[in-house]
Amino acid sequence: KQEVTQIPAALSVPEGENLVLNCSFTDSAIYNLQWFRQDPGKGLTSLLLIQSSQREQTSGRLNASLDKSSGRSTLYIAASQPGDSATYLCAVPNAGNNRKLIWGLGTSLAVNP
Amino acid sequence: NAGVMQNPRHLVRRRGQEARLRCSPMKGHSHVYWYRQLPEEGLKFMVYLQKENIIDESGMPKERFSAEFPKEGPSILRIQQVVRGDSAAYFCASSPPGPLAGPTDTQYFGPGTRLTVL
Known about the structure:
The complex is a heterodimer of chains A (113) and B (118). Chain A has no helices and 11 strands. Chain A has 113 residues and is mainly β. In chain A, the strands form 2 sheets. In chain A, strands 2, 4, 5, 9, 10 and 11 form a 6-stranded mixed beta sheet that branches. In chain A, a hairpin with a 2-residue loop joins strand 6 and strand 7. With 118 residues, chain B is an all-beta fold. Chain B has no helices and 11 strands. Chain B has strands spanning 5-7, 10-13, 19-24, 31-37, 43-50, 53-56, 65-68, 75-79, 88-95, 108-109, 113-117.
């Protein structure tokens, strides 16, 4: 049974810092991994999707890497800004059923001015 | 191209009433998924539907919950006789048509419906 874990659960940093969020999954037979952002009381914004054949994806100040063999992904945020404050979620399709997403509990990020 | 639409955005019900949540997928999408986010908990899969078919309902509670995706119109998640424990955010996602076992589908999420049961 696929399980997704995210650490840390919460993170508070001063503005301008580079930071890394971690996501691990127990079953490495995934098709892809997706990172989302969720603002309080709001919906889900897809940030990056990495296919299993890829090692990393970049979008602006965000870079996501994927190491299937070790069951890990990292989301790197460069030069953090207060507007980056949100909860970051990672999700993978369920092993053996790539339609059902299995979610981590998220990392709650606060970037302080 | 409008994204996934959900309505209402906020819904308040008293215990014992019925709640109906609607999801209109992106244009051209024929797969719909429902997820629930309970307070202080992670997102959990509920059900996966294609037009007129329930493909996977393994995440649906056994009683009071049902879902449909008719040939015409939005997908509906229906909760009968709501209880306080049903209070949560309910998210809908859609993905393009393709083989049932399509490996690289991206799911596009709606803004969610926040259900509060008094």
